[in-house]
# Entry
Amino acid sequence: MSENALGRRQALRGAGIAAGGVAIAGLATATPAAADGDHGLLGSWMCVRQDDGSPDKVRLVLSFAGGGVIVSHDISPAGPPFTGTWARKGKWFQATFWTGFPGEQGPESVGPTVRVRLRGKLSDGKITATYRFTVFAPGSETQVVDSGTGTVTGRRISA
# Structure
């Protein structure tokens, strides 16, 4: 595998993890404050995510908005934003969010996409979640080129 391909794969895996973190945060936001006793998950959360089997930890911001909107953005190291939807399922929340990358021929060409599915909970002012990310071949939502799992933890960002 060329250095470019390896670097691209690492970037895609990192993006997947970031997306997972965002999804978790979004789900928590949908929870009514009374149900959690700590004002729900709406707003933004400073989080750390880590792919299973990797020593690397990535800082990200997960933002949960009304209407089931979730945004995840790796900030250290930086990565592309992920957007999607989240929902409350009993004491748990779940989310699905996506991002895309430019293709091999540059920013105008079709590249791979990443989907992250997240499941977590809000407890004692912290969010914790697990995620599964899937990297799809350019132009496909079925041809898988990579996948993995990981965890996300975080605390609310104060205004």
